[in-house]
């Protein structure tokens, strides 16, 4: 089951407050700026900094390439002031 589109529009990284990439097939949300992945358990995003996974450079590149190749966009457009 995928996350509700309205929820995705407001989900942000709890640390830098920026948008995330949603990987439905992997059950995760990803912040490429901090290289941090948040898991989704039972359709509930676990948005706790202490429980997030920091990925290595190879995994970061894989996720960014996957997002680009599959047309995965950020959860919301960042506010540029």
Detailed description of the structure:
With 81 residues, this protein is of the alpha+beta class. The chain has one domain (5-70): N-terminal domain of TfIIb (Single Sheet). 22% of the residues lie in helices and 21% in strands. It is built from 2 helices and 5 strands; from the N terminus they run αβββββα. Strands 1, 2, 3, 4 and 5 form a 5-stranded antiparallel beta sheet that branches. The longest helix is centred in the C-terminal third of the chain and has 14 residues, at 57-70. It is globular, with a radius of gyration of 12 Å. The relative contact order is 0.23. The model has no long low-confidence stretch (mean pLDDT 94).
Globular, elongated, flat, extended or rod-shaped: what is the shape? Answer: globular
What is the C-level CATH assignment?
Mainly Beta
Major sheet summary line: 5 strands, antiparallel
- Oligomer state of the chains in this structure: single chain
CATH topology: N-terminal domain of TfIIb
Strand pairing plus helix content: what structural class? alpha+beta
> Beta-strand percentage?
15-25%
Q: State the separation between the terminal residues, measured CA to CA.
A: 34 Å
- Which architecture would the CATH scheme give at its second level? Single Sheet
Radius of gyration: 12 Å
Q: Could you estimate the helical fraction of the residues in percent?
A: 10-25%
Overall residue-averaged pLDDT value: 94
How many strands?
A: 5
Q: Could you list the spans in which at least 5 consecutive residues all have pLDDT below 50? A: none
Q: What is the overall number of helices? A: 2
Question: How many discrete structural domains?
Answer: 1
SSE arrangement, N to C: HEEEEEH
